[in-house]
Amino acid sequence: MTSRRRAEANRQNALRSTGPRTPEGRAASSRNATRHGVLSNHFVAGHENHDLFARLLDDLVAEFQPETAMESLLVERLAMLFWRERRLAIAESEQVDLHFSESAGPFGGGGPRNVPIINQYLVGRYQGMLGRQIKDTLRDLRTEREGRLLQIEPPFNDGDTDDEVGQF
After folding, report:
1. Along the 168 residues of the chain, how does pLDDT read in single tens digits?
2. Long-range contacts, stretch 56-59, CB < 8 angstroms, 24+ apart
C-alpha cells in the first residue's frame, strides 16, 4: 500500500510533468504500452496505406449496407480480416524474396530452390484461420440481417390458420 507521503510526492511530481509537446511525440507516446496490438485503436500499421484500408471498408459498407451497430461492427471486422489476408500475402512474398536473395550466393544459383516447409506450413495455417474467420463473419452478418428483417416483416402467412374468425 502506498503511504500518504509517497502519494503526495507522486502528485507533486505529476504537476511538474509536461509530457510530450509535439503532435509526433503525442502520437508516439500513445503507443508506448502496445505489445501486440490486439486491443489497439490503430489497426493499419504506420507503413501501410491508410487510404487503401479506408477504401476497402467503404466498399464493404456500400456492399453490405449495415443498418445496425452490430452489422456495422461485423462489416468492420470483415474489412480487418481481409486486410490481414492482404498483409499475410505481402509477408509471404517478402519471405520468399528474402529466402532466395540469401540463398543465391555471390554468383547466383547453388542455394535451395524452395522456401522451407515450416514457413509454407505457417502461411497455410494462417490463411486457413483467416478464411474460416471470414466465413464465420459473413455467416454472422447474414444471421444478424435475417434476424433484423424477421422483426420488421413477420413470416408470410398463407391463410391456413386454426382461427375460425370470419368463417361460415
Report:
1. 678 888 888 888 777 777 777 887 776 666 555 444 444 556 788 888 999 999 999 999 999 999 999 999 999 999 999 999 998 888 888 887 777 776 655 555 556 666 677 777 888 888 999 999 999 999 999 999 998 888 877 666 666 655 555 554
2. 56/82, 56/83
- Name the grid cell of 3: 503511504
